[in-house]
Specification:
Organism: Haploplasma axanthum
Helix content: under 10%
Low-confidence stretches: 1-46, 220-226, 292-306
Number of strands: 51
Largest sheet: 7 strands, antiparallel
Radius of gyration: 31 Å
Protein name: Carbohydrate binding domain
Structural class: mainly beta
Strand content: 35-45%
Shape: elongated
Mean pLDDT: 79
């Protein structure tokens, strides 16, 4: 048995990401016909695990809906009567790994006297575990879990505490707040832990007299997503220590410290640094954001006593408890109980008539929401535009705007905005609210479709030279079409088909092979044109040979010639002819245009262009520079700048996401998610200024009240 000195607070920490309580059950889906990217609302999608815990006293599970034992303001478990822990106290943690990880735990206690002042740890409790997979290193503050946890694996009920030993038999009058930090790091990056085993900076302060000090945290908006920050005072030459947790809803602190010298440890994500100053009985802790190149190997703390458990049959559930279910496709869904549920009648939450509601439907009939408030409803976020709003989000003229990228009739848009509608992206061409649906005939001047996929909508417009993909074949438009474009088919219409498919106005060489009506034909003459292969057997013959459209370094290509290179379609750009040789191969030279939606080093991109929305590094990006990529390519060794890179303060690409990104730049009234809140840009932001700076950003809280 190992002794786990002093616990209490299960702070479930989701590493390498920066999760929030929202991230437990809130997702936005943003997609295109080809790719769909799910963005979690936790600042970033790089978290590497989820965790939950189970706490029992005398074999009875503690529910977070039990207001006598769980404080929803501080997100901490509380014991006014610590003596009840003598009857049996057990804590298990469940870990779900998003990558292969190693985990460790930190046990924390925050003690209060009868005046609710934070006091030193009385060292009354020792928490025990018989789990042989746990161990402690000398002079470290963490308990390590020996096994690694593989990608996609769930390890249920890791025993952290199985009993508690009291140092005396006297009754305890002080109050205990408790939690446990769970910290994870990607497997094979444990040297980050070894280099700084306690992951604190160890700032020092000297206090000359016994006093009550106040705590002030600056720039705390930067870590609001942590829900809580553990702060620890340890006296040099004694065993005195004080622990308390800052949280956004609990930001007025006074700690009763005796005279002496103290180490001050602040437990934060690796992306933050801090310093501590003490003057006039006041401790100032300044937290700053630290930019890193990537998240690989980085671990973090997130104060989140997440005790959401997987739904189980034959179980009693109180009203407003949250559980999750996992379906056959491994999709996780969170549910909230709408009434007390007996174990004798506990159907699956998805069953008709069950007393469960999907957590996504936080808005309910009868709610009254004031202007500026944000709610989650129908799998997305909505903001009320008026006070006393009782209408359903999503209905027309309802006093709501939609906060993701999906088009909504009530929203106002700005020129250059990207919206998602009818399985594709559209470019906004006018400021304001047009009250027009993208793709309709009267919306031509308001929205333009993006990408290569052909759109039959009456409101779709194409220009000469535009290339579309239709039923697996690429076509090029022969003339400007203001609206209602014809469907491509390659026979005397407005579209020219690209190789290897027969096109009526193209001239074919002898022995050239083409495809027509799903059959392969070989040309028997040179200058073969305008004669349908199926109707002219004297100049076309059926063949089993495949068309040779693979790029050939010995062949000379001209404008709009089509080839396949490494499985990707290319055409020669306008203005180029006599293109041949290994020095001018596709994907390695400016002569060719890549016809996929993926980012290319050599395609020509420009602002507000149909083909300047690209997919790169699992995200969509739009070109935002006033200059074209052809104009700036020489500054980057002849290649296009990479999405996400900031060069000399310039971002050439903007990631299409509602989540705040350090590489994006923002316009006035843009809305982003950061630190578990929505933020509106008060002005154009053309440099790195993250939400929280009140000169540039205005905060809007998300209403997650489960009792509404």
């Amino acid at each position: 048995m190992i002794k786990l000195k002093k616990i209490v607070i299960l702070l479930l920490v989701f590493a390498a990401s920066i999760a929030t309580s929202i991230g437990v059950y809130a997702w936005i889906s943003v997609g295109a016909e080809k790719e769909v990217s799910e963005l979690i609302t936790e600042l970033d999608s790089t978290r590497i695990f989820e965790a939950s815990m189970n706490v029992k006293i005398n074999d009875e599970e503690v529910k977070y809906s039990d207001v006598s034992r769980y404080d929803s303001v501080t997100h901490m478990f509380t014991f006014n009567n610590v003596d009840e822990l003598r009857d049996g106290f057990k804590v298990n943690v469940t870990i779900e790994a998003k990558k292969q990880i190693k985990v460790r735990f930190k046990i924390v206690e925050e003690w209060h006297n009868s005046n609710n002042e934070i006091i030193e740890n009385p060292h009354l409790l020792t928490f025990n575990s018989s789990n042989s997979d746990l161990y402690k290193k000398d002079n470290e503050k963490y308990i390590y879990y020996t096994p690694s946890i593989g990608l996609g694996k769930i390890v249920e009920d890791i025993e952290i505490i199985d009993s508690v030993t009291f140092s005396n038999t006297n009754a305890i009058s002080d109050k205990l707040y408790f939690a446990i930090i769970v910290d994870a790091i990607q497997y094979n990056y444990e040297d980050n832990w070894d280099a700084n085993p306690n992951d604190t900076l160890g700032n020092k302060i000297n206090i000359s007299n016994d006093t009550i000090v106040s705590i002030d945290l600056k720039n705390i908006f930067q870590v609001g997503i942590l829900r809580g920050i553990l702060i620890e005072f340890i006296q040099y030459d004694t065993d005195k220590n004080y622990q308390f947790v800052y949280s956004e809803n609990r930001n007025n602190f006074e700690v009763k410290l005796s005279a002496g010298s103290y180490d001050v440890n602040v437990y934060t994500h690796k992306l933050f640094t801090y310093d501590v100053k003490y003057t006039n009985n006041k401790i100032l802790i300044n937290i700053e954001y630290r930019i890193v190149d990537n998240y690989i190997g980085i671990h973090s703390f997130i104060f989140s006593p997440n005790i959401i458990r997987e739904f189980k049959f034959d179980t009693d559930y109180p009203k407003d408890i949250i559980v999750y279910t996992i379906d056959d496709n491994e999709k996780k869904t969170y549910w909230v109980s709408t009434k007390v549920i007996s174990k004798y009648y506990s159907p699956h939450p998805s069953a008709q008539g069950s007393s469960w509601e999907i957590m996504g439907k936080r808005w309910k009939n009868g709610n009254t929401i004031d202007a500026g408030k944000v709610v989650y409803y129908d799998n997305t976020f909505w903001q009320s535009t008026r006070n006393g709003n009782t209408t359903t989000p999503g209905s027309v003229n309802s006093g709501w705007i939609r906060l993701d990228f999906t088009w909504f009739l009530n929203n106002e848009y700005k020129i250059g905005d990207i919206i998602f509608y009818d399985n594709g992206y559209w470019l906004v061409l006018k400021n304001g609210n047009s009250w027009k649906e993208p793709g309709t005939e009267n919306s031509i001047s308001n929205f333009a479709s993006l990408g290569h996929n052909f759109r039959k909508n009456t409101g779709a417009a194409y220009k000469t030279g535009d290339i579309v993909l239709y039923e697996g074949i690429y076509y090029m438009m022969r003339r400007d079409y203001a609206n209602n474009p014809p469907t491509p088919h390659g026979e005397w219409d407005e579209w020219a088909v690209l190789d290897p498919y027969w096109e009526i106005e193209r001239e074919y060489a002898k022995d050239q092979i083409i495809i027509y009506e799903n059959k392969k034909y070989k040309s028997l003459i040179s200058g073969n044109s305008q004669k349908k292969p199926s109707e002219n057997p004297t100049i076309w013959e059926l063949t089993n040979e495949d068309p040779n459209i693979d790029w050939n370094p010995n062949k000379v290509y001209k404008t709009n010639d089509y080839v396949l290179y490494e499985g990707i379609s290319y055409v020669v750009k306008n203005g180029y002819s006599n293109v041949s040789g290994n020095s001018k191969k596709p994907n390695e030279s400016v002569y060719w245009r890549n016809l996929s939606d993926n980012f290319s080093y050599y395609n020509s991109y420009k602002m507000n262009d149909r083909y300047s929305l690209v997919y790169y590094n699992e995200a969509w990006w739009k070109w935002t520079s006033d200059k074209t990529s052809d104009e700036v390519r020489s500054e980057f060794d002849g290649k296009n700048p990479i999405p996400g890179e900031i060069v000399n303060g310039i971002n050439y690409w903007q990631e299409v996401t509602i989540v705040w990104k350090p590489h994006n730049r923002y316009k006035k009234d843009d809305m982003v998610i950061f630190a578990g809140h929505f933020w509106r840009a008060k002005q154009d932001i053309n440099t790195y200024i993250q939400p929280g700076d009140v000169l540039y950003w205005e905060r809007y809280d998300i209403d997650w009240n489960p009792n509404k």
